[in-house]
Amino acid sequence: MRCVYCLGGGGEYGRPGMMSEETALAAVDWLFESSLDAKRVQVSFAGGEPLLAFPLLRRVVAYAKQHAAARGKAVSFALTTNGGLLTDRVVAFLAEEGITPVISFDGSAAVQDGQRPFRNGRGSYRRVRTMCGSCSPSCPA
User: Fold this and answer.
1) Each residue of 62-108: pLDDT tens digit?
2) What is the rounded distance in angstroms from the CA atom of residue 81 to the CA atom of residue 88?
3) End-to-end CA distance of the chain
4) Among 136, 125, 137, which Cα is nearest to 102's?
5) For residue 2, what pLDDT is reported?
6) SS3 for 49?
7) Are 38 and 76 in contact (CB under 8 A)?
8) Which of 4, 93, 107, 134 could be a cystine partner for 111, CB 3.0 to 4.6 Å?
9) How many CB atoms are closer than 10 A to CB 35?
């Protein structure tokens, strides 16, 4: 998307790129090492659009689950997305992993389409609204 209010300069935050797998896995390592005696930890995917790196997201989920099992901890996941990259495959993965996404949605069709157009200039309301309902039946959008 090309949200009109994006603080990330269209998703590039001053320079193009995505978080590397090395950095993502190191963050999970740090989380578990820093959690001490906590019985439960949560990994949250946010900032920019985490579904742009869906293969990495899948890898991080698997890695965190391995860490949790090895340490006798529970791990849960949170995901904030603009919904533009939700597909049946992504929704199925989220459901399998028990991840209910938080959908950033601006409101009515006119507001959503004006604030959150796709890169091609088309509005995102219809697409996001359709997919949002498939991943979260209680979605108010």
Assistant:
1) 999 999 999 999 999 999 888 888 888 999 999 999 998 888 887 78
2) 15
3) 18
4) 136
5) 74
6) coil
7) no
8) 107
9) 17
The DSSP line for 79-115 is: EEE-STT--HHHHHHHHHHT--PEE---SSHHHHHHH
Kindly report the average pLDDT of the chain as a whole number: 85
Rg (CA), the chain: 16
Strand-pair partners of 41: 75
Q: Listing from the earlier edge strand, what are the strands of the sheet with 40-45?
A: 40-45, 74-81, 102-103
* pLDDT band, residue 1 (cuts 50/70/90): confident
Q: Report residue 113 as tokens.
A: 């389409």
Q: Are 8 and 15 in contact (CB under 8 A)?
A: no
What SS3 state is found at 31?
helix
| Largest separation between any pair of C-alpha atoms in the chain | 49
pLDDT tens column, 3-52: 777 666 555 555 566 788 999 999 999 999 999 999 999 999 987 789 98
Which amino acid type is present at position 47? G
